[in-house]
Amino acid sequence: MKAIENGDQPLKDIGEWDDFVARDVYPEPKKRAKEDYRNYDDPARDCVREFYRQHHEHQSYEFVLGKEKEWLPMRRKKMTVLEALEFLNTLVDDSDPDIDLDQMQHLLQTSEAIRADGHEDWFVLTGFLHDLGKVLCLFGEPQWAVVGDTHPVGCRFSDRIVYSEFFKANADYHDPRYNTQLGVYEQGCGLRNVKMSWGHDEYMFHILKDYLPEPALYMVRYHSFYAWHRENEYDYLCDDHDRDMLFWVRKFNPYDLYTKCPELPNWDKLRSYYETLIKKYLPDELTF
Ligand code: FE
Ligand code: FE
Questions:
Q1: pTM (predicted TM-score)
Q2: Which of 93, 179, 206, 223 has the fewest CB atoms nearer than 10 Å to its CB?
Q3: How far is the CA of 266 from the centre of ligand 2 (A)?
Q4: What is the pLDDT of residues 55-67, one digit of tens each?
């Protein structure tokens, strides 16, 4: 089976995970998932399942502390936003044609849909930047340390997380420091004090945290925290500020999941708009 042969890169490309979430786990309102995602007769589903198996096994509290130490000093590479986008786009050059859009198109479609709905420019920019942290893949990180649903580590895993049965292989599942409801946290401590599983969301939040308004930062940091924004889990870790910001995270999610324009946005025509927008909020270079 391909998934097993591919070692720690079971997905053909990382967009396969996003597609799985949008199509099979949280389909658009009024559309229903074709089948239960646990049905694993389908080879593409095997890859996603294998991806989650690895993700849930490895994303432990210790693992996250290690990744923060490794990545948060941000000393790998300086890039302008457009250089980072070009770099990110090298990820999918060899993907097969029906795994639809490259990363750049996903970002543009998300931001253009936000713009078409008349939202403020920082919201548009957030759509345009939200997945840039996926460059971690190009720095050699395994897929399960870049994409996938995010969730708190250091306390009990919610059984509403996709494929939660795989957490049984996670060291924290058996560790009494980390497997109670609160684990290392205090009730209502606020998500900013909670360690999230490591991936492109948390990474990108740290890159952008000095530049974008608070709702934008929540969108970036928690957009893959489906257990929270879709399943209403982990409220006991939240404070009132998190609950206020949840509104924005939820507002963002449909643009991320369901925007597929029949007509692809034309980058050449849009480029100068985005260059101006980037300049308004961000320094010339970001440090990755
Ligand atoms: Fe994302
Ligand atoms: Fe996205």
A1: 0.92
A2: 93
A3: 19
A4: 999 999 999 999 9
